[in-house]
Amino acid sequence: MSRGSPGLTAARREEIIEACARLYEHMSFREITIKEIGAATSFTRTSIYNYFETKEEIFLALMQQEYDLWVSAMHAVMEKEDHLSRDALAEILSRTLTDRPRLLRLLSMNHFDMEANARPERLAEFKVSYGASLETVERMLEKYIPEMDETGRRQFLYAFFPFIYGIYPYTSVTEKQRKAMEQAKIPYVYQSAYDLTCSFLKKLLSKAEAAT
């Protein structure tokens, strides 16, 4: 149970999430512990348990923050742009997503185990932000491709969202992975996250256009 005023509770939650984010810049999920996160905050490690029960809850909160920032970027596009071609929509949507490399890295993690180690209320908070991203992408489709019907939009979402979970592993190959691929005689051609995403979206929207 967290203690203090709502303002203090929110500030301390944010400090914990930001500490986790800083560690995640140079450490893996496996390497980061509650102890490590606590050492990067201004209060005691045991105080973290007043706000998050597990490391997984902290990472879900970080991912929730990243989803919210992505949604904000998409809303900014819709406020600014009245009309976009399908190719322009693919390019801008790709940019709003790949401008959040931390989100792409988080998406590549094992969500099944992470969600299993979070309390239902924390998981529900995360799902609200995830749902907002689905809804916002659908609103973009409605605005810029009005001829696309509900079935078409649903098909787009069910292709696009599973795809984004694999962007980071395909565009962030380590030296160890590269050497293993060479030994296995698997050619590796680098593509940026933006190029990979934009190419996929243009093909997806082109197929959707042919179907309408």
Helix-strand layout with pairing:
Blueprint: H1 6-24, H2 34-39, H3 55-80, H4 86-98, H5 101-107, H6 111-116, H7 120-144, H8 150-164, H9 167-171, H10 175-183, H11 193-211
Helix pairs in contact: 1-3, 3-4, 3-5, 3-7, 4-11, 7-8, 8-11
Largest sheet: none
CATH class membership of the largest domain: Mainly Alpha
CATH topology of the largest domain: Tetracycline Repressor, domain 2
Assign the CATH architecture of the largest domain.
Orthogonal Bundle
Structural shape: globular
Q: What average pLDDT do the residues reach?
A: 93
Tally of contiguous helical segments: 11
CATH superfamily of the largest domain: Tetracycline Repressor, domain 2
Please compute the radius of gyration using only Cα atoms. Answer: 19 Å
Distance between the termini: 53 Å
In total, how many domains does the architecture comprise?
2
Structural notes for this entry:
The protein is mainly α. It has two domains: 1-52, Arc Repressor Mutant, subunit A, CATH 1.10.10; 56-211, Orthogonal Bundle (Tetracycline Repressor, domain 2), CATH 1.10.357.10. The protein is built from eleven helices and no strands. Helix 1 (6-24) packs across helix 3 (55-80), helix 3 (55-80) packs across helix 5 and helix 4 runs antiparallel to helix 11. The chain is globular, with a radius of gyration of 19 Å. It starts with 5 loop residues before the first helix and ends with a helix. The mean pLDDT is 93.
